[in-house]
Amino acid sequence: MKTVGILAFQGGVAEHEQMIKKCGQHSLEVRAKKDLDLCDALIIPGGESTVIGFFLEQTGLDKEIVQRAKTGMPVWGTCAGAILLAKNLGLMDISVLRNAYGRQIDSFQTKLKVPALDIDNLRAAFIRAPKITKTGAKVKILAREGNHPVLVRQGNILASTFHTELRGDDRLHRYFLSLI
């Protein structure tokens, strides 16, 4: 059984825990290096990127996550997590614009096609979601919403600008687990 850490400073921690359990694996809330040391992979959930980024820096987990990712640990950032992967941690060669779809009232749900993973009708919620405005040469675009990339991968790093954990669709979590 694999242990998937879920960064637990703020945001959608419980929802990711439920999805990992649904996939038959173990999750662990990560708030310190000792927690991260027990993990095979890490999810950085949605929430408020400035708050999560502050705690990453204060605890030194930012440096630990970068080190572990550079040695192959899979990391997945959802929504605010995608912002952190690009801006705070520098693990993805993407540019991200915060709250690009508008305010909370402008949030929406849709079904996405993920041709690269042979997934149709992936239930996705865009809540004050960021937009990926630029991708580097090593970034593979796995899904788009309109003209914008919304699911990207660079080696062992995965980023989505939407939430599937809120919709109960575990297919993206299962894909992430396959990276371990």
Write the layout of secondary structure elements.
Blueprint: E1 3-7, H1 13-22, E2 26-30, H2 33-36, E3 41-44, H3 49-59, H4 61-70, E4 75-78, H5 80-86, E5 94-97, E6 108-114, E7 119-126, E8 131-135, E9 140-145, E10 148-154, E11 157-160, H6 171-178
Parallel strand pairs: 1-2, 1-3, 3-4, 4-11
Antiparallel strand pairs: 5-8, 6-7, 9-10, 10-11
CATH superfamily grouping: Class I glutamine amidotransferase (GATase) domain
Q: Report the CATH C-level class.
A: Alpha Beta
- Please give the order of strands in the largest beta sheet: 2-1-3-4-11-10-9
Q: What is the H/E string?
A: EHEHEHHEHEEEEEEEH
Cα-to-Cα separation, first versus last residue: 11 Å
> What profile does the largest beta sheet have?
7 strands, mixed
Task: Classify the beta-strand content into a percent band.
Answer: 25-35%
Number of domains: 1
In summary, what is this structure?
The protein is built from six helices and eleven strands.
